[in-house]
Amino acid sequence: MNDKNVIIVTGASRGIGHATAAFFHKKGYVVYALSRTGCDLEGVKSLLCDVTDGARLKEAIDSIFEAEQHIDVLVNNAGGGISGAVEKTGSADARRLFELNFFSFFEAAKFTIPYMRRRKSGKIINIGSVAGTLHIPFQTFYSASKAAVEAFSNCLRGELAPFNIKVTTVLPGDTRTGFTDAREKDFDENDPDYGARIGRSVKLMEKDERGGMSPQSVVKKIYKAVRSKNPKPSYTVGVTYNIFVLLNKLLPKRLVQFIINMMYSR
């Protein structure tokens, strides 16, 4: 059995997942990177896996346990986004986003928990978003899926407490990654009902993301959660976003949502 800590990172071909895999490899972890297109990091064990394919995901996780005889950390990171009005979003598109952003987290945890429970030890780190707390118009399904991730994490944390398995959500704000260019745009800017408003909203969102924090800022919070004996239920990344989340708790909800709407849905 390998004595080194074993970590699984989903969505590790780019962005936060790629940076996480690189960081933990340098820290001496045995890193398994799950992605559809592969991870190019030397020394990281790359497994091709569409995390929305439950059978393939289970096969990958079982094979990791078979090779290592333990799994210490799961970082659920794979994700995507859709921009558009609820009225004009295809139902299949919305379901597909939830399959990626939420159900893949559920199934990766479901298939990993039995191995952690045997050892009464483990960490599950789910990558949420500040958008799951501060809900953004025209990013509705992304915000909803990330809110679901945080609720899932909090419930799972209680279920797994007797087995010494810790569950944490890391909440990044705007981050410079390929996520911006990969976001689906389920709208037409010439749509007389929503087009101009969505166009302005998405341009502002993309500007904020491209000027946002580095993936390494998120990785530091992931590492803090992994290294902590008793990690917090959630970690918000960045001083500015911590202030926003605090204000969201202190100010009337109507006022908070009014401010967000003025920014992103005018």
Q: Can you list the strand order of the major beta sheet?
A: 3-2-1-4-6-7-9
Going by CATH, the architecture would be 3-Layer(aba) Sandwich
Counting DSSP H or I runs of 4 or more residues, the number of helices is: 9
Shape: globular
Short structural summary:
The protein has 266 residues and is α/β, with parallel strands linked by helices. Helices cover 50% and strands 15% of the residues.
Tell me about this structure.
It is a single chain. This protein is α/β, with parallel strands linked by helices and 266 residues long. The protein has one domain: Rossmann fold (3-Layer(aba) Sandwich), CATH 3.40.50. The chain is built from nine helices and nine strands. The protein has helices at 15-26, 54-68, 91-119, 140-160, 179-182, 195-210, 215-227, 239-250, 253-264; strands at residues 6-10, 30-35, 45-48, 73-76, 82-83, 122-127, 165-171, 184-185, 234-236. The strands form two sheets. A seven-stranded parallel β-sheet has the order 3-2-1-4-6-7-9, sandwiched between helices. Strands 5-8 form a two-stranded parallel ribbon. Helix 2 packs parallel to helix 3. The longest helix is centred in the middle third of the chain and has 29 residues, at 91-119.
Q: What is the topology?
A:
Layout: E1 6-10, H1 15-26, E2 30-35, E3 45-48, H2 54-68, E4 73-76, E5 82-83, H3 91-119, E6 122-127, H4 140-160, E7 165-171, H5 179-182, E8 184-185, H6 195-210, H7 215-227, E9 234-236, H8 239-250, H9 253-264
Parallel strand pairs: 1-2, 1-4, 2-3, 4-6, 5-8, 6-7, 7-9
